[in-house]
Design goal:
Radius of gyration: 18 Å
Helix content: 40-55%
CATH topology: Rossmann fold
Largest sheet: 2 strands, parallel
CATH architecture: 3-Layer(aba) Sandwich
CATH class: Alpha Beta
CATH superfamily: P-loop containing nucleotide triphosphate hydrolases
Shape: globular
Length: about 200
């Protein structure tokens, strides 16, 4: 929940930030450096895309936006009660979603290479959406994508599918009202139906 300490995570090209060489070494231990394209997806990096652009040559940024109700539900549900006895209130999860998207909207104006992708498009037309990303990055398109086969995602083997309805169904009317208080306006402005 990086938004609780945005002051520690928010970086622009003007900030010193952590040692870029150290970060590159840490990522090199986890990533396959024989690949032409390396992918790093950590939610806190949303707050430092401008800093990353400054320190990582040829960086491309793909902002993935998803229905805020589903995201807020997922963040709260996945909070580990062993480490967070009080979990994360749905308002805090909604704020994490809201702030992440606000920062990306603001910082996109400063990025040389940035594109938005909707989670819902990725789930419904995986090959076309992946090919938009490959075109943006400048690598060959996917000829095909086995969306009918299970993929390991978050330690689960599942087919690519839109899981928004499942998440939204778990929300109570009170949860929805609390999400709307925090992020309802942005949910609507990003093209989602306010519940």
């Amino acid at each position: 929940m990086w938004v609780e300490r945005e002051d520690l995570f928010r970086l622009t090209e003007e900030d010193q930030g952590p040692d870029p060489l150290r970060i590159k070494k840490e990522w090199a231990m986890r990533l396959d450096l024989s690949k032409a394209v390396l992918l790093e997806k950590s939610p806190p990096n949303t707050a430092k895309v401008r800093w990353l652009q400054e320190h990582f040559e040829n960086a491309h940024f793909v902002g993935i936006v998803r229905n805020g109700y589903a995201v807020a539900e997922g963040i709260t549900r996945k909070a580990d009660p062993r480490h967070l006895p009080d979990s994360w209130p749905i308002e805090m999860s909604a704020y994490q979603w809201k702030r992440s998207n606000e920062i990306l909207e603001q910082d996109a104006k400063h990025l040389k290479r940035f594109m938005w992708v909707k989670y819902e498009d990725l789930a419904s037309d995986t090959v076309a959406t992946l090919n938009q990303i490959t075109d943006f990055i400048g690598i060959p398109d996917f000829e095909s994508f086995e969306s009918d086969r299970p993929w390991t995602i978050h330690e689960r083997n599942e087919k690519v599918r839109n899981m928004n309805a499942d998440s939204i169904e778990r929300l109570s009317r009170e949860d929805i009202e609390r999400i709307n208080q925090v992020a309802g306006d942005l949910i609507e402005s990003l093209g989602y139906t306010r519940l």
